[in-house]
Amino acid sequence: MPLLRFDLIEGRSKEELKKLLDAAHVAMLEAFSVPERDRYQIVHQHPEHEMIIEDTGLGFIRSKDLVLISVTSKKRTPEQKQALYRLLAEKLQEECGISPEDLMVSITENSESDWSFGLGEAQIFTGKL
User: How far is CA 24 from CA 1, 5, 91, 102, in A?
Assistant: First the structure.
């Protein structure tokens, strides 16, 4: 049930976006052990001047290929989070040619009662999932 929001500088093709989303999903499946169809991804594309993502003094060189992924998920272990960060960097570099320096990930945790997949119910909280 992780929800991934991708903030990108506009200009990628549909094919490039599909490769990016598919690679991120593979990383999520492996890191968080979620079901295959547990896929919720939203892409937001911005003009370059609307994204100022610096490096917090780490010395990264960012490019127009920058990808900011915001993950909303139930609580995960530090090991699962580290695996996700590593796998995202690996998969996006392998599949999309995106430098690990151009990847930023933020995870926000919530609880099982914070999700409704439809029908006005919190299916995880009520035990339907």
Answer: 14, 11, 7, 14
pLDDT at 127: 85
Residue-level pLDDT at 24? 98
pLDDT over 70, % of the chain: 100
List residues with catalytic annotation.
2
Q: Give the mean pLDDT of the chain.
A: 95
Do residues 92 and 67 make contact, with C-beta atoms less than 8 angstroms apart? Answer: yes
